[in-house]
Amino acid sequence: MKFNKICVIGQGYIGLPTAATFAAHGLNILGVDIQPEIIETLNRGEIHIHEPGLREAFKKAHQSGRFKAALKPEEADAFIIAVPTPFKHDETGEYNGASYKLADMRAVAAAAEAIVPFLKKGNLVILESTSPPRTTMDLVAPILQKSSLKAGVDFHLCYSPERVLPGQIMRELIENARVIGGVTPESAQAGADLYATFVRGEIIQTDATTAEMVKLMENTYRDVNIAIANEFSRLADKFGVNIWEAIPIANLHPRVKILSPGPGVGGHCISVDPWFFVEAAPELTPLIYHTRQVNDAQPRFVVDIVQRALGPLKGKKIAVLGLAYKPDVDDLRESPAVEVVHLLQKEGADVLACEPFKPEAKLEGIVIAPTLDDAIRGADALVLLVKHAQFINLTPAQLAGKTNARIVIDTIDGWSSAEWKKAGFRVAKLGSGKTD
Question: Which one of the listed residues 7, 101, 158, 215 is annotated catalytic?
Answer without folding.
Answer: 215
